[in-house]
Amino acid sequence: MFETSAGLGQLITVLIMAAALGMDAFSLGIGIGMKGIRLLHVLKISVLIGFFHILMPLLGIFTGQYVSSLLGQVTTYAAGGLLILLGAHMVFNSFKSGDTRMIDHRTLLGMILFSLSVSVDSFSVGVSLGMFQSNLILTVLAFGICGGAMSVMGLLLGRRVSRNLGDLGEALGGVILLGFGLAFIF
Questions:
Q1: What's the pLDDT score for residue 142?
Q2: Alpha carbon separation from 112 to 90, 179, 183 (Å, rounded)
Q3: Looking at the predicted structure, is the pLDDT value of residue 150 above 80?
Q4: In the predicted model, is pLDDT for residue 107 greater than 80?
Q5: Where exactly are the structural domains of the chain?
Q6: What is the mean pLDDT of residues 131-158?
Q7: Which parts of the chain span the membrane according to its record (predicted)?
Q8: How far apart are CA 114 and CA 35, in angstroms?
Q9: Which of 13, 120, 151, 156 could make a disulfide contact with 25, Cβ separation 3.0–4.6 Å?
Q10: Would you give the DSSP letter of residue 132?
Q11: What single DSSP character describes residue 37?
Q12: Helix, strand or coil for residue 186?
């Protein structure tokens, strides 16, 4: 499938980024799971998160490709800077006191809003990836599958574990994105 080491490197990068973005769904899933959640809601929320983890980076990639055509050589620095800002934002949010993201996850609107809120970061990463040559299908499928799977794990784990693990998961995802941002720039 991947004939060159550059192709394998791209695959590993996409998978690590997908996992980093899935950390937000995982961490918030733990919080919702701790409040009590039915298995049917776990399935519905995870499918919606997977869908938005495909849609948002897809929109971001197309936006990034357009921005790349406008910026030219500055693209690498802009993409790296965007990942650094996104990673720093995720780390900062993980240490905020109090849960300001209280959405009733049992309603359809609540499920959609929750799924969209944990998938917005994927748009920004998609913009960064759109500035480079990345495999579109591989990228959006990896983001969608990873986001959906990590939300299932978070929701189910939330029924058994404390909320602190969720905050650390989001911080870890932010640190990973920060690292990739710095790697793009330097």
A1: 93
A2: 21, 30, 34
A3: yes
A4: yes
A5: 8-185
A6: 88
A7: 12-33, 45-68, 74-95, 107-130, 136-156, 168-185
A8: 15
A9: 151
A10: S
A11: -
A12: coil
